[in-house]
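User: Let's play a game. I give you a shape written as tokens, and you guess the letters that built it. Ready? Here's round one.
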């Protein structure tokens, strides 16, 4: 009986992801990202106090999908009647 390459790819796939889960790599990545998020939030809060910035950090459930983030920003702008001129040129670079 000759086992084809597809079988070995599947076996390798399960071994690889099994090892990742066994070594708790997803949890380690999640913990690392949460630590970095906390550092960024602290830095933003410091800037808010020292430079009088207005900062709004949305709840996590609104930050997992870019489309959801864009949608919620649009929704709040609509509620506040915060419309921009259609001739306005956007600039994606923040200057400090």
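Assistant: Ready! My guess for every position:
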């Amino acid at each position: 009986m000759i086992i084809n390459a597809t079988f070995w790819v599947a076996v390798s796939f399960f071994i690889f992801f099994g090892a990742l889960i066994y070594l708790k790599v997803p949890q380690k990545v999640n913990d690392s990202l949460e630590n970095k998020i906390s550092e960024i939030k602290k830095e933003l809060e410091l800037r808010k106090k020292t430079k009088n910035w207005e900062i709004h950090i949305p709840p996590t459930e609104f930050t997992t999908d870019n489309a959801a983030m864009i949608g919620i920003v649009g929704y709040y702008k609509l509620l506040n009647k915060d419309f921009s001129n259609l001739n306005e040129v956007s600039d994606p670079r923040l200057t400090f």
